[in-house]
Amino acid sequence: MSEQTMNLKLKIWRQKDKNSKGQFVTYAMPGVSPDMSFLEMLDLLNLKLVRNGEEAVAFDHDCREGICGTCSMFINGRAHGPLKGITACQLHMRTFTDGETIVIEPWRAKAFPIIKDLVVDRSAFERIMQAGGFVSVRTGGAPDGNAIPISKAVADEAMDAAACIGCGACVAACKNGSAMLFVSAKVSQLALLPQGYAERKTRVEAMVAQMDAEGFGNCSNTYACEAECPKMISVEHIARLNREYVRAKLV
Amino acid sequence: MTLNSKIPDGPIEKKWDNHRFNMKLVNPANKLKYHVVVVGTGLAGASAAASLAELGYQVTALCYHESPRRAHSIAAQGGINAPKNYPNDGDSIWRLFYDTVKGGDYRAREANVYRLAQVSNNIIDQCVAQGVPFAREYGGLLDNRSFGGAQVSRTFYARGQTGQQLLLGAYAALSRQIGLGNIKFYDRREMLDLVVIDGQARGIVARNMVTGKMESYLGDAVILATGGYGNVFFLSTNAMMCNATATWRAHKRGAFFGNPCFTQIHPTCIPLSSDHQSKLTLMSESLRNSGRIWVPKAKGDKRHPNDIPEEERDYYLERLYPSFGNLVPRDVASRRAKEMCDKGHGVGATGLAVYLDFSTTIKRLGKKWVEEQYGNLFDMYKQITGEDGYQQPMRIYPAVHYTMGGLWVDYNLMSTIPGLFVLGEANFSDHGANRLGASALMQGLADGYFVIPYTMGDYLASNKFSKVDTNHGAFKDVERDLDSMTKKLMSIKGKKPVDEIHKELGKIMWDKCGMGRNEARLKEALQEIPKLREEFWNNVTITGSADSFNQELEKAHRLADFLELGELMCHDALQREESCGGHFREEHQTEEGEAKRNDEKFAFVAAWEYKGAGNAATLHKEPLTFEYVKPSQRSYK
Ligand SMILES: Cc1cc2nc3c(=O)[nH]c(=O)nc-3n(C[C@H](O)[C@H](O)[C@H](O)COP(=O)(O)OP(=O)(O)OC[C@H]3O[C@@H](n4cnc5c(N)ncnc54)[C@H](O)[C@@H]3O)c2cc1C
Ligand code: FES
Q: What is the ipTM for the molecules in this complex?
């Protein structure tokens, strides 16, 4: 345990609801231990605010271990903060220095309207998944799990793609607000596995069409998405999506 | 009321088959006429909702998350069991059944456990077909590993993210049905009460967490798949929002609560470092397959672990349990760690930790192998503690992890309220007094994919439902009561934020109803909890408004229930004058410090009936009989 604490200044986006105008509010934040997680630091701020009769800062979070994809904030201009390969909830205060001002904003993207403060509505992702992010098998009647061998290399690559936690950092990091990395991760996982072959064509078409309908921007290959993805999903999956899409249009 | 567990007749291997044959079926054309409300869309709820919709029922599903994919099931790391016997190491349905009954310390129903073992193989097949990327061997076949409490390799896994991948599989099936219009799904809705009409569960009232409005949802039956209540301890490995509200409020409407004191403390968690900590982080116990647990032989040894020579280390699990070693069940591993620390052998700044050491495995199989198996867990450890588990042993300590207790259900997974079914961690079934590793995912998916589709049909086909809508007085009364409860909470305007009171409750529960329990401390807790509850109702402070997005208010509703449930847990722990599984009564132990069961007096499920505010709950007992796995003192020597 580190004994020294830090004094920080927090500039946080506050917005009452979807229809209100938001603004930055600055809070002095003394007594921050370097061992705290970033979200525990926000908990501490909220305890203080509530004790003073002020409204707590709303932010989405749940697992606090980087797996549920719920936490979603822009910290000092970076999705999930300054470190690579982690979510905001995995960030610890030892990453910051005494006296620093930290700017905290919600995801900003046309397809993710703000609900309150740092909380956004990511239901556009849901609708993309509903359009085709599945293999159409009913419960029951599946063949034995070992009926179709799948090489370890392919299974591992599918797992790399499947590791996406659907947090939306890729969209928030992209200047166009594109959802290509998110969509490609699912398309790629299921295109790699034999179980997904039968629906390759319809899946990629339906998911891309829904992505466009939701108002996500185009991909202009700047790869900010890969750089900010907490699960380091590779843009190679975007390349595979493009191939799948072309293939679907040809076949 | 007498409890009827509805266990079918016949030999154990035939019970489920016979029952499936004897159950009534709903004619395909009629299925559309029935409507089921599914609360919670983690593994259990998502698999149930998808499977029921595929059959043709109308389904409404809701959860408090913004997406089903965020459910706490996502956090499971280690794996899921199935006795496929792919490794040819002697596994079978019978062995999984036997291990689960024994691992649960003979406090689970044999018939349920047998069924669970039976359908578990189908789960793997189902998930593979959905495109779940399970780990594979070079030859392309599915890989298995062994997991706490089992001597065979029957655990399937997907890197360190098994729960996530299984949930994404169930979520995909659910999403498909939503896309097809067969399921109406509502996100950010928190069920705050159950609606019972003419003695049948007919719907729920949920708070819309964005607008604050109370909304009614009607069905012919209701499924709760709302997860466990480990957060009654404030600090646990559960996700922050996990809570007992759905099950507790159903309990107050008449559903009996089964074995509330049976909680599991997981041995391999990252130790607590400060008061600000909001949760504890589990590292999968699969780590125990390759890591060796030890403490310094000398008390208070402050040397760096790498400087402590081999002969001055006590690999106490290997010493005490030569045949199971580091793989003893969770309750045993946790209790022994606590005991070592209590005796002064604990390590780290707080002295509340033991070492988990990988150096032997790294020497034998190489760092790369360890990285491949457990890489993300080592990363997670480093992220949180700033230490490198490859260079020095990890520090671990037990933490609250899982609740075996939950709403009492019969063999059909129906509670004591007709039409209210309970699935997954929310029910009490199958794990007895201790759950084996990799069997919660199995149970949640067994309930959702392979049990409820049959038993729900039987219920719907066997009962009549009066024609009502959500304007029925029962819905309106509940909505009104919830509005006034919310108003009351908002108007207290006291001095303490919700979390502050929750931490106080957590401390009482951990100190007095945690890893070791005794009469005196439980009685103290029973004095303290009602006082704290009173303080909550007089001194909590909630800012913001009731008719908008308000996380403080959400937490207050949940804490109100924890403050009642915690008390019931202590009552239950107090009445159970024996030690079994995760319930360790210090008065009842063998000379070697092992749990001492009392089968003569306590071979029963404790099912508690709510009797109104201020009245003591009534204890009902469902006797447990063991025809196939004869109770013996569990021995892992
Ligand atoms: C860190 C960790 C690791 C684990 N690892 C393993 C493992 O390796 N193997 C294993 O077998 N088990 C493991 N477990 C246990 C297992 O993950 C859980 O027991 C299981 O996933 C629970 O699934 P569930 O569907 O019952 O509930 P959950 O997944 O908790 O889902 C609950 C659902 O109910 C909803 N909900 C709850 N209350 C309400 C309400 N009032 N209104 C509306 N919606 C509500 C939630 O939104 C959510 O959708 C682990 C648990 C933890 C904590
Ligand atoms: S809270 Fe789950 S990923 Fe951050």
A: 0.98
pLDDT attached to residue B149: 61
DSSP state of A216: -
CATH class of B267-400: alpha beta
* C-alpha B152 – ligand 1 centre gap (Å): 26
Assess if CATH 1.10.1060.10 describes domain A122-250. yes
Tally A–B CB contacts below 8 A.
Answer: 215
Q: B476-595 has which fold?
A: Methane Monooxygenase Hydroxylase; Chain G, domain 1 (1.20.58)
pLDDT value, residue A3 = 63
pLDDT for A1:
46
State the Cα–Cα distance between residues B192 and B215, nearest whole angstrom. Answer: 10
Q: Which CATH class is domain A6-116?
A: alpha beta
Under 8 Å CB-to-CB from B309, ≥6 apart: which residues? none
The alpha carbon of residue B305 and the mean position of all alpha carbons in its chain are separated, in whole angstroms, by 34
CA distance B143 to chain A (A): 10
Rounded to the nearest angstrom, the distance between the alpha carbon of A119 and the centre of ligand 2 is 13
Determine the average pLDDT of the residues in B62-88: 96
Cβ under 8 Å to B: A residues 190-209: 190, 193, 195-196
Q: Tell me how close the Cα of B314 comes to any Cα of chain A, in angstroms.
A: 26
For B462-484, b where at least 16 C-beta lie within 10 A, e where not — what string?
eeebeebebebebbeebbeebbe
Contact B425, B244 (CB under 8 A): no
Give A246 to chain B, closest Cα distance, Å. 23
Task: Give the distance (Å) from ligand 1 centre to CA of residue B425.
Answer: 7
Q: Which residues of chain A make contact with B137, given a CB cutoff of 8 A?
A: 152
Backbone angles phi, psi at B186, to 5 degrees: -125, 120
Tens digit of each residue's pLDDT (9 = 90 or more) over B154-184: 999 998 899 999 999 999 999 999 999 999 9
- Is the Cβ of B416 closer than 8 Å to some Cβ of chain A? no
Ligand 1 atom nearest B448 alpha carbon = 25
User: What residue segments make up the domains of chain B, in order of their start?
Assistant: 267-400, 476-595
Q: Is A68 in the pocket of ligand 2 (CB under 6 A)?
A: yes
Residue the block writes with tokens 């629906």: A199
pTM score above 0.95: yes
Domain ranges for chain A, please list them: 6-116, 122-250
